[in-house]
Amino acid sequence: MLAATVRVTRDLDTAEEAVQDAYVQALQTWTRDGVPANPGAWLTTVARRRALNLLRRIRTLEAKLPLLVEPAGTEGPEADPDPETAVIPDDRLRLIFTCCHPALSRQAQVALTLRLVCGVATPDVAHAFLVSEPTMAARITRAKKKIAAAGIPYEMPAAGALPERLDAVLTVVYLLYTAGHTARTGDELVRGGLTGRALDLARLLHRLMPAEPETAGLLALLLVHQARQATRTDPAGALVRLADQDRAAWDREPIAEADRLLTAALRAGPPARFVLQAAIAALHAQAPTYEETDWPQILTLYDELLRIWPSPVVALNRAVALSMVEGPEAALDAVEALERDDRLAGYSYLPSTKADLLHRLGRDAEAAGAYRAALALTDNAAEREFLEQRLAVEPG
Fold this sequence. Notes:
It is a single chain. This protein has helices at 2-9, 12-33, 39-64, 91-99, 106-116, 122-129, 133-150, 162-181, 192-208, 213-227, 252-267, 273-286, 295-308, 312-326, 328-338, 349-360, 364-376, 381-392; strands spanning 185-186, 379-380. By secondary structure, the protein is mostly helical. Strands 1-2 form a two-stranded parallel ribbon. Helix 1 packs parallel to helix 3, helix 2 (12-33) packs across helix 3 (39-64) and helix 11 packs across helix 12 (273-286). The longest helix has 26 residues, at 39-64. The radius of gyration is 23 Å and the shape is globular. The model is unreliable at 64-81 (pLDDT under 50). Residues 96-147 form the RNA polymerase sigma factor 70 region 4 type domain. Belongs to the sigma-70 factor family. ECF subfamily. It holds the Pfam family DUF6596. InterPro entries: DUF6596, RNA_pol_sigma70_r2, RNA_pol_sigma70_r4_t2, RNA_pol_sigma_r2, RNA_pol_sigma_r3/r4-like, TPR-like_helical_dom_sf. One of its GO terms (molecular function) is DNA binding.
């Protein structure tokens, strides 16, 4: 809805205001008259109509205040790109490329787009960036102000500008999937709406830029994750660890599709961030059991991933692979080193990983303390239940 409205306004703030007004009108009208047959179309129509009214008011103001003129080179706000000839034939993807404007820093591009275009809540965006909610809210506000102050028009980039914005767009889609793959809060582990939307966008991206290995890598990565989504919880909604999942129930069709994509991407040259992650996911998918996973190769891939993407989350995931290759003692040293990284101070997977390693070393009392630390950082009900069950079997 926001994507359709911003095509009218070419201004995110105005479009957001129009969309919010549409929701308010829906609350009033639907309570009185009932929900329409197509609520989405109804909301979009009302938002676009509201946007046009807002623009008329703005034009009137501009006519009366000659000092406030529209920036030179800006197209008419009602111009609507022809879907048949547009460089990006999809509203959602077009708006993501538009918002990943090079005038902003990479983090600002991704955060602003996740919040405004993808509808990810600010606390969830903050969680993805390992920063506090106030910090992220301030970062998004600064990005919007910078765009407004610089008079940057929200225009679809030309075809030649797409590669420059691609890495930020890939990151947006990846983090959108991540936000749905393991919900930060709530009763359910997965938010299927977010994961499904991200997978659709990844397919569109690959269709748009099929020669780019990273678009293939991202799509392959999401396909493998999606293939085992149904086995990540039991019928009661309880979390099931990768080691305990029913591999016979994994959907082999998307895994095969991911393998084809990954093979082509690896032939294109040295693998980058998403191709490496897809390769790790594919090795998990190919293993007949958790224990028979090719852990040495996974550890090698994590080493390379950490070299080109030195993220503390990657380092933590590498520690798990290290524990399977060299044992929990070596991995515990790596995890304890990460405890000195402030970025992971609120990241529940750090103490839960440490707890698992301590449990494997027979240091149960310390493991219990680490599980309690992880519980204090988790607001998702499925994860909390899992951690409480683990804590219950620890003597400490």
